[in-house]
Amino acid sequence: MIYTSEALQQLVEEFAALPGIGRKTALRLALHILKQPREDVVKMARALVNVKDKISWCSVCSNITETDPCVICSSTKRDPRIICVVEEPSDVLALEKTNDFKGLYHVLGGALSPLDGIGPEELKVGELLKRLPGEVTEVILALNPNVEGEATTMYLTRLLKPLGVQVSRLARGLPVGGNLEFTDEATLSRALEGRITL
Amino acid sequence: MIYTSEALQQLVEEFAALPGIGRKTALRLALHILKQPREDVVKMARALVNVKDKISWCSVCSNITETDPCVICSSTKRDPRIICVVEEPSDVLALEKTNDFKGLYHVLGGALSPLDGIGPEELKVGELLKRLPGEVTEVILALNPNVEGEATTMYLTRLLKPLGVQVSRLARGLPVGGNLEFTDEATLSRALEGRITL
């Protein structure tokens, strides 16, 4: 494609490098930026760099934070007896949205995946062990319901149980608002297995 | 949602303000940015501001450009006898991709839309008339095949014909790679109407 402006071409390439954004969407976004007032574009540019400059990792839970320890770890309103282990900072956000969990978190930074060269040393497993048992009575393993997440759950269960803390995992079953007819067999098996007496 | 970082929240809001990007995608993009090396993020931020600082509008064809007149208007390899009238700079890019048009362009900046308060004064119609007839022999109206584009085509045809230039429009018909069975009636009518003798 022949661009009449090199600056536009560069911005299209920057947008197209983002995950899930193709060249057509990138061009649409770049032309949108071109139509915005300069101060709004500067604000967006500053927000990008700020994310790199202001955010670091909490030395306790390894979640992203601007203060150390993070607002969750340093909060007096959270229950320090329960630690919920997740893969990524986005999982913390998802759980916080439920407003149902009042304990602390621990972000592993991924899940075990030997084929990709990700073993326990690549994850924040050592940092998790350092927090245990202390006043912790329960560890909830909230990993993704896929092969890597399952493997990590198994691995951590074996590691944590001898420490004398209760280890639990999230329930598997029908998603709320879902449809029994269109639920896959594996999920349905888990829903049957975990049925609840009324 | 409770963000543990204000900088992250701000970036999510900036991304979510882009067209076609929802809050979930915005969060995914922001977390992607967080994982990138700082110099890459700075490069992207600079590309954003550059687009505003370096790009202006060509005084001849009203297309986006970094030089005035733009590379197309100032090229000696283009045929100045044909002007192709389009709505937006992105339409110029689409036509340039075909490599089939060697004339000049004129970017209107939109199409007539009385309901949105867009009349001929809001478009670069006066600038188009100033270029005619001169050495121009043909004006191709390449507006979008929708109501506003049709209305603009009609309006410009009536305005340009008395100037003694040939006025043409893009053909309507079956899109290449399309399917007769699933083509809408309006397109099929136009395809029949514009059938070509073999």
Structure report:
The structure is a homodimer of 198-residue chains. Chain A is built from seven helices and six strands; from the N terminus they run αααβββαβαβαβα. Chain A is an alpha/beta fold. Chain A starts with 5 loop residues before the first helix and ends in a 5-residue tail after the last helix. A four-stranded parallel beta sheet of chain A has the order 4-3-5-6. A two-stranded antiparallel ribbon of chain A has the order 1-2. Chain A has two domains: 49 residues, Orthogonal Bundle (Helicase, Ruva Protein, domain 3); 91 residues, Dna Topoisomerase Vi A Subunit, Chain: A, domain 2, CATH 3.40.1360. At the A-B interface, helix 1, helix 2, helix 3, strand 2 and helix 4 of A face helix 1, helix 2, helix 3, strand 2 and helix 4 of B.
Specify the biggest β-sheet of chain A: 4 strands, parallel
**N to C succession of SSEs of chain A:** HHHEEEHEHEHEH
In CATH, the architecture of the largest domain in chain A is 3-Layer(aba) Sandwich
DSSP E strands of chain A, number: 6
Low-confidence stretches of chain A: none
- C-alpha-based Rg of chain A, rounded: 22 Å
- Count helical runs of chain A: 7
The secondary structure category of chain A is: alpha/beta
Oligomer: homodimer
Q: How would you write the strand order of the largest sheet of chain A?
A: 4-3-5-6
Rounded average pLDDT of chain A: 89
What distance lies between the first and last C-alpha atoms of chain A, to the nearest angstrom?
A: 64 Å
| Cα shape of chain A | globular
- Estimate the helix proportion of chain A, in percent: 40-55%
CATH class label of the largest domain in chain A: Alpha Beta
Largest Cβ-defined interface? A-B, 56 and 56 residues
CATH topology of the largest domain in chain A: Dna Topoisomerase Vi A Subunit, Chain: A, domain 2
Strand content of chain A: 5-15%
| Count of discrete structural domains of chain A | 2
